[in-house]
Fold this protein.
Amino acid sequence: MSTTLNYTAPWPVLAFDWCNTVGPSPSSAQSTPSQQSYYTPATYKSRPSSSPPAYFRLVLGSYIENFSNSLQIIGLRSEAPLSDPDADHGVYDEQGVRQDFAVLAEAQHGYPATKVAWEPASMPSHTPLKHGRSELLASTAEMLKIWEYSAGDGGAGDGSGYVGRGRSPAKGKLTLSGQLTNSKNPGNAAPLTSFSWNDVQPSHIVTSSIDTTCTVWDLNTRTAITQLIAHDREVYDVSWLPGSTDIFTSVGADGSLRAFDLRSLEHSTILYETAPPQSSSSSGGGSSSSSKKRPPVPLLRIQFNPSDPNYIATFRVDTGEVNVLDMRAPGAPVANVRGHDASVTALAWKPDPGLGGGGGLLATGGDDRYVQIWDPSHVIPPSSTPSTRPSSASSSVSARPGLLCDPILAYTAPAEVNSLAWSKSLAGGASGYGEWLGVAAGRHVRALRV
């Protein structure tokens, strides 16, 4: 089996995500939306043995500094590389790299997508935004955009419209289904920096914006449920607490990580704040410019550990360190991950439901072109559990965060890393293809078998 699958995009890839399901089941090809059924991670093992692994589908968003950006959905060109690492289907890029993925669908996006995501596995087959056999995706730029992806007609319900066995996959269609904005003049709307799709109530998405706000949207009614001023400066990322329909967290340019509860929006909880950067001036000068208060270091990204949602990973701008925090003990990290020689640009927890106790692998990528995989559970102190965590009056030594400097796996990417995405776990490992980490680096997409 191949350990690396390759694709070279026609443009730099900024936004990136791995599909959450294998799409509508073949039996629903002619179904109405209300009758349509899906292969999910739990039912994938019962798929017909002849159906190809449509689970290997990715969505990419370009980064071009103008209004001519695109979204692409790519899928495996052939199953052969999954069983034969030397398989040759005769398609290579200009540098001789085998192209294992082919384009399934493409659409114009205008401004670069700051984030893209497939619908959650919990998304019902019938929603006001779907028409027939399709899946939804979302992206953010100047507004929240909802897309409908319909697979190509690969034959009489054999599922080969997603990927082909020994031939190029059938082309599908990616259609803009809805655009959501609070601005009366969308052309002047404040750019959105990120979003999070609620996996319990998949009709809800929360977005973050440079105008300091977060907005919760109802996709069924295409209206905003609530909008709140979340930070003192730009908000850079947002994430629902896994398993919750009410609580979400955000990070921003004010250097804070905050939690919000839709049931009580009068206040937020500050879980963590960065310190101002160290002044380069000497401490003995005492000039008015050096004594002026410096702003905190911005926090750029946030992601919950799906194995144990008490733990959150985040990183600051222009740093090679990732901080892991425990929501039950706010104020300081329980572990620091230091392995990059340049700025961290991406992180992704491996989906391992049920591990708990801080388990789960964490992947990080940076401008040093390295992708590194860590196991923070090795250094998260036992005191990070609520019953044993020392109080603020306890010894500072016992409360010191764990330090992780040696990754368990490392990979050198062909360019600076822009985004990471894990494949989603299939029940019982029934697919037989293992688990994969997707890497977007420059124009290159790599799927690494872990």
About this structure: The radius of gyration is 22 Å. The first strand starts at residue 4 and ends at 8. Residues 26-52, 155-166, 383-398 have pLDDT under 50 and may be disordered. The chain is about 0% helix and 40% strand.
